Amino acid sequence: MMRSSFLRPGVVALGLLASLAPVAAQADEAIFAGGCFWSMETDLDRVEGVTSTTSGYIGGTLANPTYQDVVTERTGHYEAVKVTFDPSKISYDQLLSAYWHSIDPIDAGGQFCDRGDSYRTAIFPMDAAQRRAAEASETAVAADLKQDVATKILPTATFYPAEDYHQDYYNLNPNQGYCMGVIQPKLAKFMKTYNPGE
């Protein structure tokens, strides 16, 4: 007996509707350490295609560190930001460009007024493609600056979100002293120098 390949009209309509339904963009993630995470988060939140940022800690020896643990400079953690982005709007290469414009890549002892190991710069690639892109961008930055770059490219480790009061800190506390004296001037410079087309 031959089976009919005829589909009922309702089934065909459902199939057509399913094929026309919008497909949600696949989000991607990146992790960067660039000094105070309040400042990094503030810069990267303003990059088109970034959908969210999370301040946190990465790269240390202590599980579930707190801010009080990390500021002792004995746990080995970096203050870092996990960036969720829409790859249909910004590529990882463009995100790396934003990162390099947000930091001082030749400072091995911290960033700006923030000194200590937890404020060093580092890129934590999430996969082999990100690692290749990070390495290529580091080479390009070093060539552009004509000197070695202090920023490390490190294996991705467990990322621990920081305490709630650290999240979105600048936007919630724009008149706090550090925000006014450090983050605002740095953000102004970032917005002036970062070119999304790079």
Structure in words:
- It is a single chain.
- The protein is of the alpha+beta class and 198 residues long.
- It has a single domain (25-193), classed as Peptide methionine sulphoxide reductase MsrA (Peptide Methionine Sulfoxide Reductase, Chain A).
- The chain has helices spanning 9-20, 37-45, 67-70, 92-102, 128-145, 169-172, 177-193; strands spanning 28-34, 50-58, 78-85, 110-111, 114-115, 121-124, 152-153, 159-161.
- The strands form 2 sheets. A 6-stranded mixed β-sheet has the order 7-6-1-3-2-8.
- A hairpin with a 2-residue loop joins strand 4 and strand 5 (114-115).
Query: What is the spatial order of strands in the main beta sheet?
Result: 7-6-1-3-2-8
Write down the overall geometry: globular
The CATH architecture: 2-Layer Sandwich
Name of the CATH homologous superfamily:
Peptide methionine sulphoxide reductase MsrA
Class based on secondary structure composition and strand pairing: alpha+beta
Rg estimate, integer Å? 21 Å
Named CATH topology: Peptide Methionine Sulfoxide Reductase, Chain A
The helicity comes to: 25-40%
User: What is the highest CATH level, the class?
Assistant: Alpha Beta
Count of strand segments: 8
Task: Name the poorly predicted regions.
Answer: 1-23
Q: In angstroms, what separates the terminal alpha carbons?
A: 64 Å
Tally of structural domains: 1
Q: Determine the number of helices (DSSP H or I, runs of at least 4 residues).
A: 7
